[in-house]
Amino acid sequence: MRLSQTLLPTLKEDPVEAQVVSHKLMLRSGMIRQLGAGIYSWLPLGLRVLRKVENIVREEMDRAGAQEVLLPAVQPAELWQETGRWSKYGAELLRFKDRGDRDFCFGPTHEEVITDLVRHELRSYKQLPANFYQIQTKFRDEVRPRFGIMRGREFLMKDAYSFDLDQESLDNSYKQMFTAYQNIFKRCGLQFRAVEADSGAIGGSDSHEFHVLADSGEDAIASCDSCDYAANLEKAVAGGSPEAVPAGADMQKVATPEIKSIDDVAGFFNISADKTVKALLVQTDKGEFMLLLRGDHELNEIKAENYLDGDGFKLVEPGAVQKSTGVSVGSLGPVGATTPIIADNSLAGMSDFICGANEDGFHLTGVNWERDLPLPKFADLRNVQAGDLCSRCGAGTLRLDRGIEVGHVFKLGDKYSKAMQMTVLNQGGREQTPLMGCYGIGVSRIVAAAIEQNHDDSGIVWPIFLAPFHVEILLINPKEEAAAKLAEEIYEYLKARGIEALLDDRNERLGVKFKDADLIGAPLRVVIGGRGIKDGAVEVQSRHDGVAEKVAIDAVGDLLLKRAEDLLKGGV
RNA sequence: CGGGGUGUAGCGCAGUCUGGUAGCGCAUCGGUUUUGGGAACCGAGGGCCGGAGGUUCGAAUCCUCUCACCCCGACCA
């Protein structure tokens, strides 16, 4: 590609709206431009990278035996009503009507559509297992889109859906996808980790997320320092239930005016927060519940919601707490409470703890189970913290990292196939509901994630397989005839041998070209013209380490070819 | 959804408090000189000041209503 004929609007300065480095660099390097909140146009440079990711994903999916299809982006409401998701999916689902006043949505995911297709077309167990995938634009009307392409509303996603006759076969399909995903992220040059996950709104049982490790990641992931346990924060479980310690103090009611938060309480009694117990009032369609957590722990709403198994889970507003219990939130406590109580596992061994007295302006000290209040139900309700014991091996401790979720695999079971009455005839000639799996990859998000992991102060440092170009040919001055001719020759030479080259043949000053080349981040660069050419030499430079070397003109074509091929072989 | 902020030339901003008919830097176009890390000088073009309504002799500026975008929060007892 010739830069003189390409739309590549680079920016000297960081755009004010960009918070994270990938967003800044994608704007500065002219890869994308924003059209609306969470909606972006892809310019030629960005599109090339997007296509690279897409092709890697496509190749690995094909290799894993999946078949590519393309499903409609616009979907009729009827399908979503069949599975109940039309009412359940909420405001994230972009809905609209056609001219006949019929309801439609722009697909945020495609379980319904693929199941509908397959229930009409698959009749026999002999056609299973089957796995269909597509690479397509999705729309999710996110509460708060941010970080550019990282959390956009419109984004490019690869989604795959597997159909198997029985659990064993599903397990196998799942494993195949898991392996394919590892291959994909490796080829993209990403540092990633697969973690256990909650299956969330899409539903199902087994589930893993693939996270690219980055400080700017929106998700927290926990991993054990001594075994291979890794899970996202929603799912991670801390191990080691503490031994019960016998009571040593009497229960006392203490006046605590203006003491509301756990920090206040800990400060007032001059103790650490882990000696306190906090009470939270939540509600579901099954009524109100009081949840108890150690003062220094955080509620994990997903765990609580799963445990209570009711719809409409939410924290009761402070005002409503007052109305319901007669106590303000700051003094809420379990002793004498009339709402059903569920306590986090970590409270099982606690003794002599401090909690709200269920009376405004008072707390209780020296509280003990069974003596002062009945033993409640215990459950895992909290987020793990760094340093917690590992629940898998019991020996290691957990650490927390930030991750960008780039892939997610689920075992859906028969959730959708059953709801949509998809059956095939089994070997015995009876109708049987197949089991499904679904497998997503955020294709556009990978582009951002890759930049988060591969950049320096000057710009992007692309891993070879995602690089928009393998080589940038930097022609110092197009008016310098010998140099221009040489640049053209190298350009054609590389192109003919399958090496993607960008020729900067613009009539720009040298500094501008260098800055843009750094931003764009092609792994290899050759500088042609100026003082070098008089000595019969050009300069070959690696973006990765910045090392430059003088190369004789005759040798440069082959050297670049070799360098590029080495990189492509090594996948760096 | 709640709170905060910003909309003025392609981009970044000043002007708004105190109304008088729009300016700066970068970018763009023409010219001259320059040419190994974002050049210098001379000249030029480009804006119904987010939109609608109102107040006024007069509105970017004051009032009302809207739309868009950005940030923070929605993990707290």
In short:
The protein has 572 residues and is of the alpha+beta class.
What does this structure look like?
- The chain contains 15 helices and 31 strands.
- It is α+β, with helices and mostly antiparallel strands.
- The protein folds into three domains: 17-73 and 107-236 and 400-451, Bira Bifunctional Protein, Domain 2 (BirA Bifunctional Protein, domain 2), CATH 3.30.930.10; 252-379, YbaK/aminoacyl-tRNA synthetase-associated domain (YbaK protein), CATH 3.90.960.10; 469-570, Rossmann fold.
- Strands 3, 7, 8, 9, 10, 11, 12, 21 and 24 form a nine-stranded mixed beta sheet that branches. It has a five-stranded mixed beta sheet with strand order 16-14-15-17-20, with helices on one face.
- The structure holds one RNA strand of 77 nucleotides.
Low-pLDDT sequence parts: none
Query: What fraction of residues sit in β-strands?
Result: 25-35%
Number of helices: 15
Structure class: alpha+beta
Q: Give the number of DSSP strands.
A: 31
Question: How do the helices and strands line up, and which of them pair or pack?
Answer:
Layout (H helix, E strand, L loop, with lengths): L20 H8 L3 E5 L2 E4 L1 H20 L3 E2 L5 E3 H7 L1 H4 L5 E4 L5 E4 L4 H11 L8 E10 L14 E11 L2 H21 L4 E5 L10 E7 L5 E6 L5 E3 L19 E4 L6 H8 L7 E8 L2 E8 L6 H8 L5 E2 L2 H8 L15 E4 L8 E4 L5 E6 L9 E3 L18 E16 L1 H5 L4 E2 L5 E2 L2 E8 H11 L1 E2 L2 E2 L10 E5 L5 H16 L4 E4 L5 H11 L3 E5 L1 H5 L2 E6 L5 E5 H18 L2
Parallel strand pairs: 3-7, 15-17, 17-20, 27-28, 27-29
Antiparallel strand pairs: 1-2, 4-6, 5-6, 7-8, 8-24, 9-10, 10-21, 11-12, 11-21, 13-19, 14-15, 14-16, 18-19, 21-24, 22-23, 25-26, 29-30, 30-31
Helix pairs in contact: 1-11, 2-6, 2-11, 12-15
The protein binds one RNA strand of 77 nucleotides through strand 14, helix 13 and helix 14.
